[in-house]
Amino acid sequence: MPVSGRVSLDGGKVPGPGFIYFNTDSGTGGSSRPGTAEFDADGNYTAKTYIPGDGLLPGKYVIRVDCWKTAPNMDGKPVVSFIPDRYQNAAKSDLTLTVEPDSKSITFNIDLLSR
Fold it and tell me: What is the pTM of this model?
């Protein structure tokens, strides 16, 4: 199912491009295939499972988001994120999405809160 939308931070623009990870909630009996999306500097994204733009398979997803000021690296420099840790960890994230089998197209906007 096509899934697209916009990521925002406190109702405004996110500070840069980043990634969204649609982790499957295996306890729901839906898809076991996760999805991803890259969002641009304006926060716009289109989800994919296999190829760009193909969307997500039916099922329930727990969402995590990465948007780095200083990304993880091999040289040991400290990482700095533009967004709170709770959105970067699927176990802490309260962001969820359910894709129903009969969905045609889903617009799913994600407003992250800095507090």
Answer: 0.88
